[in-house]
Amino acid sequence: MYRYDEFDHAFVAQRVSQFSDQVARRLKGEISEDAFKPLRLMNGVYLQLHAYMLRVAVPYGTLNSRQMHKLAHIARTYDRGYGHFTTRQNIQYNWPALKDMPAILQELAEVEMHAIQTSGNCIRNVTADHFAGAAADEVADPRPYAEILRQWSSVHPEFSFLPRKFKIAVTASERDRAAIQVHDIGLQLKKDGEGRLGFAVWIGGGQGRTPILAKKVKDFLPEADLLSYVTAIMRVYNLHGRRDNKYKARIKILVHETGVEKLSAEIEAEWMHLKDGELTLPEADIAAINAYFAPPALGARAEGWGELAAWKKSDPDFASWVGRNVAPHRHPDYGMVTISLKPIGGIPGDASADQMDAVARLAVEFGHDEIRVTHEQNLVLPHVALADLEPLYRALVAEGLATANAGLITDIIACPGLDYCALANARSIPVAQEISKRFGDAARQAEIGDLKIKISGCINACGHHHVGHIGILGVEKKGAELYQISLGGSGDENASIGQITGRGFEPDQVTDAIETIVDTYLARRSGAEETFIECYRRIGADPFKAALYGGEAQAA
């Protein structure tokens, strides 16, 4: 992973010092809250319903054990003993005191972390495939390019005050595990016919009030042109993006209203002024960044195959965990382990300080000191020998981190909702907990198979409900919480926006509605191998609407 140089250390230290002074002035009343707001947002500090919230950047979701231990320490020392991992591969603390923010940022700086650009109208944390550098199907590790984009975009003077926030995601395989088509810019690393690396480029994706899938504007962009082309996109957006209406300020609206052909032509024209200039990436610089992401030395561990087979035969729970939470690694003797932060009845994405410390220790013992945060609010140890899976599993069981539900109905994405967020219309956490409890039986989850439920407490869609196989959106109606259900969304390479089924449901009706949807799927699927999303795309929405509403008018 990337390591700070002298410039990075000095830059972050200067930012901490600057914000420390701003906080001190705010606490003395020398700065009003209105004047303080843009300053705190530049440093990842939100004012939520009950307290300030701090969002810490985890660039492209990559951590080491030292950093995870520090996150645990901050949770224990400055918060209420836990942190919340987010859909941008970051971590949030919901209860820090404003007076403690400078100390927290100083402690983060000690382990090469910060909270810069985790909020505000700037380029946010660049996300990447959580299996990057380990997956067998990628053409190259996408994280070096995410790091290049991070360095380029950090406090970029031209793009620090954009019309609205801006999100970039990078993947490197045909299977999209980074949801690039619902980002402002989505980049897929690929090779051309001559084996040269480059990118397919999408623009204008996003969720929120107006969910739109991105449009491909470049089938192959040479890797050396990455920054010049992204700069061209940003310049066109910065110039034309609407600043009169924040709901229409995202690049997706610009693409929609201008048309992708016209806008891409303008981007190409701007790019011509930048191409082959100072933004061209030198091969030496690309190689230097790539060197930071060299894979660990993975020795042959062929004994793991026999041991794994024996362990699976003797322990059905372990076998179930391996089947759901361990994915094949490019090295045949290793696996990529998902650590679920979705215990049955728990709060999605939350981890206690003790659990974070445990993951850090296990990463050192079994995972070559690498940890990933996923946009699905789980953690990953990307390099674990098959021979080590059984002792790792036992250790995870002891920490309450061995839930075998990756990709299943209880692996729910949920935003903090009205329990914390000042923007929310409804609670997300209790709904997620009730659904998890209802479907917590392992055999029932296995029967249902792959099914992604995603919950947002407001239209901003931080819970990615638009791309859930089942999406749940909390809305407010006459002062009461109500939940709209959508079906058929997906954030993978076959991306789609879910369609609202009809009228909303009261809080105590939501779980029953989900059960009705699931039962309809089980009754209508062609066989046990047909997943929920495959079944939905085959039979359409009508059978599910009929089951939910009968003959009622289906007013959305």
Keywords:
556 residues, Sulfite Reductase Hemoprotein, domain 1, 4 domains, five-stranded antiparallel β-sheet, 18 helices
In short, what is this structure?
With 556 residues, the protein is an alpha+beta fold. It has 18 helices and 20 strands.
| Total strand segments | 20
Q: According to CATH, what is the class of the largest domain? A: Alpha Beta
Shape label: globular
Average residue pLDDT: 97
**What proportion of the residues is helical, as a percent range?**
25-40%
Specify the biggest β-sheet.
5 strands, antiparallel
Q: What structural class is derived from the secondary structure elements?
A: alpha+beta
Order of adjacent strands in the largest pleated sheet: 1-2-5-4-13
Any idea what the radius of gyration is? Answer: 23 Å
Q: Which regions contain 5 or more consecutive residues with pLDDT less than 50?
A: none
CATH architecture annotation name of the largest domain = 2-Layer Sandwich
Write the layout of secondary structure elements.
Layout: H1 6-27, H2 33-41, E1 45-47, E2 52-56, E3 62-63, H3 65-78, E4 82-85, E5 91-93, H4 101-110, E6 127-128, H5 143-153, E7 168-171, E8 185-191, E9 197-203, E10 215-222, H6 226-240, H7 251-258, H8 260-274, H9 283-292, H10 303-314, H11 316-325, E11 326-328, E12 334-339, E13 350-352, H12 353-366, E14 371-373, E15 379-385, H13 389-398, E16 413-414, H14 429-438, H15 442-448, E17 453-456, E18 470-477, E19 480-487, E20 499-500, H16 510-524, H17 532-539, H18 542-549
Parallel strand pairs: 6-7, 7-8, 16-17, 17-18
Antiparallel strand pairs: 1-2, 2-5, 3-14, 4-5, 4-13, 8-9, 9-10, 11-12, 12-15, 14-15, 18-19, 19-20
